Amino acid sequence: MNRRTRTALLGSALLLTVAAAAGSAGASAPDESRREAAAVTGKAKLYRSAGDDITFSFDAHLAAKDKADPMKATGTFEWSHYLNGEGAWAKARVDCLVTGGKVAVVSGVVTATDLPGAKGTRVGITVHDLGRHDRLGYSWATTEGLGPKDLPKCVGSAPFEKVRKGTGDFTVVPWRPDF
């Protein structure tokens, strides 16, 4: 490519960049009415000094049209816990999602698992979105096994667990109900 062609290409690129910047400078703020009412998404591993491999992932959403009813939330969440090749995994269908600021409580019913007796159990998890230092808590922390099958919707424990350094990427969209 000769010098003249290169200069023309650079000039065109500069003009496109300036035009794009000018167009975005006049852009309005995001339309809040189009944003979903609440969400918790992402995946992280928990920290355990013994080396346990514990992973949680979330894809839970409350549509804007369902803003007044957190029990219309949809999506799934899953987790696994292994140590020395032993452990289990489970996946749950979301049945409730409430968020406040950077904290989310999501509950669901276990739909798939290799943990005997866990299928059909409702569980709840709390996520605190702290950037790369997220925290997490789960309803079965203070119950036997995964807890009672009649656990109420949107119940979780305080987010007492720390995620493993470098794995925290949970994102919480705060719920803003009309009061």
Task: Please provide a written account of the structure.
Helices cover 13% and strands 39% of the residues. The chain contains one helix and nine strands; from the N terminus they run H-E-E-E-E-E-E-E-E-E. It has a nine-stranded antiparallel sheet, with no helix packed on it. The radius of gyration is 22 Å and the shape is globular. The longest helix is centred in the N-terminal third of the chain and has 23 residues, at 3-25. Residues 1-30 have low confidence and may be disordered. It is mainly beta. The chain has one helix at residues 3-25; strands at 38-45, 53-62, 74-83, 86-100, 103-113, 122-128, 135-138, 161-162, 171-173.
Distance between the termini: 64 Å
Total DSSP helices: 1
Based on CA inertia axes, which overall geometry fits? globular
Q: How many extended strands?
A: 9
Radius of gyration: 22 Å
Keywords:
179 residues; 9 strands; mainly beta; globular; nine-stranded antiparallel β-sheet; 1 helix
